[in-house]
């Protein structure tokens, strides 16, 4: 029997995910010594915390960010005075296509060159660090937002009671966007539902939306509903979950966490060891209320924005068959697939993911 952490218990009646997938052992990474591994993990943790504190200090010194409170969102990376206009790195996906035109891409001529990256459950803006670097080197603008209770946002996850509250930092970001400017939204995992939520609110500010191994609900569905399409349960996901009951065990759970010992197998089975270490010290609990809230979408708003889906082939958290079931229900305009990617392509296949994002940025919205 899987034992939950102190103060929480497993809730098989209301699982977060029930994707059709079998448990499989991920890659095993080793170092020359146990001490070297511990030193690497310690270094990564200190580096992540230092970067977050440096960013907050920078914003406060420039008057851009008040003292961190329960409503503050964090965006990465630091503003840059110049962008490098380098050639795009080589990457690949399972879909053969001509990409020679991207080598001479003029970013300034695109409908939108600004990506806004939305993390999934338990993650934070930190998980996009490779994607941000690649996009900026190619001349794009890139921002990643910490959703409420995620990353270094200080809000208590157990106090989040709605999808609106969870997505508030993303809503605030789009509200402050200058008139006439459009962004490309990218959502990962349950961040796909958050992207859908703001598409309904701000259709005039979104050029297109890209769902990366993400929930893609239809109107009237919750995140939990999207996973009910599966034909069987995901044993590994169920084993990894531990639920917290801040209002007492006679009430619904308020949040859930993922066992760090199972993170590699579940989310990072193809990812580098150092990125797994970064995630293990950075991931936070996932609020439960937004997972159960139904989202209502209209054709006039949400339906007016082109949507694209990027499938992850070696995904054990949201299986490929489950991704395809969501695609069939929601019918995005185009579907691409990343070969050899686990649930976290920003770690396992960063250049291939980058290539697909850039390719999709060149697709005119008017053709849909």
TrEMBL record:
It comes from the Eukaryota. Residues 1-39, 78-100 are annotated as: Disordered. Keywords: Hydrolase. Residues 19-35 have a biased composition (Polar residues). One of its GO terms (molecular function) is methyl jasmonate esterase activity. Residues 89-100 have a biased composition (Low complexity). PANTHER family: METHYLESTERASE 11, CHLOROPLASTIC-RELATED (PTHR10992:SF872), METHYLESTERASE FAMILY MEMBER (PTHR10992). This is AB hydrolase-1 domain-containing protein. It comes from Escallonia herrerae.
């Amino acid at each position: 029997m899987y034992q939950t952490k102190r103060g929480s218990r497993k809730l098989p009646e209301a699982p977060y995910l029930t994707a059709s997938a079998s448990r499989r052992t991920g890659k095993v990474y080793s170092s020359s010594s146990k001490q070297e591994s511990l030193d690497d993990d310690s270094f990564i943790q200190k580096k992540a915390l230092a970067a977050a504190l440096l960013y907050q200090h920078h914003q406060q010194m420039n008057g851009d960010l008040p003292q961190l409170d329960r409503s503050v969102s964090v965006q990465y990376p630091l503003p840059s005075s110049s962008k490098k206009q380098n050639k795009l790195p080589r990457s690949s996906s399972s879909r053969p296509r001509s990409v020679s035109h991207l080598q001479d891409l003029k970013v300034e001529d695109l409908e939108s060159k600004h990506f806004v990256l939305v993390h999934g459950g338990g993650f934070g803006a930190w998980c996009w660090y490779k994607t941000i670097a690649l996009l900026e080197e190619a001349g794009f603008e890139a921002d990643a937002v910490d959703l409420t209770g995620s990353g270094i946002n200080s809000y208590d996850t157990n106090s989040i009671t709605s999808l609106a509250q969870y997505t508030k930092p993303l809503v605030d970001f789009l509200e402050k966007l200058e008139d006439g400017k459009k962004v490309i939204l990218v959502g990962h995992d349950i961040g796909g539902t958050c992207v859908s939520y703001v598409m309904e609110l701000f259709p005039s500010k979104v050029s297109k939306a890209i769902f990366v191994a993400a929930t893609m609900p239809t109107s009237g569905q919750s995140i939990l509903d999207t996973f009910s399409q599966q034909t069987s349960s995901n044993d590994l996901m169920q084993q990894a979950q531990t639920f917290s009951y801040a209002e007492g065990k006679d009430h619904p759970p308020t949040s859930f966490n993922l066992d760090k010992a199972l993170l590699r197998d579940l989310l990072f089975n193809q990812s580098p060891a150092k990125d797994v270490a970064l995630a293990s010290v950075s991931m936070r609990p996932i609020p439960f209320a937004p997972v159960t809230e139904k989202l209502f979408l209209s054709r006039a708003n949400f339906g007016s924005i082109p949507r694209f889906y990027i499938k992850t082939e070696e995904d054990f958290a949201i299986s490929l068959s489950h991704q395809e079931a969501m695609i069939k229900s929601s019918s995005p305009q185009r579907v691409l697939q990343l070969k050899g990617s686990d649930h976290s392509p920003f770690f396992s296949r960063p250049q291939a993911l980058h290539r697909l994002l850039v390719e999709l940025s060149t697709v005119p919205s008017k053709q849909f």
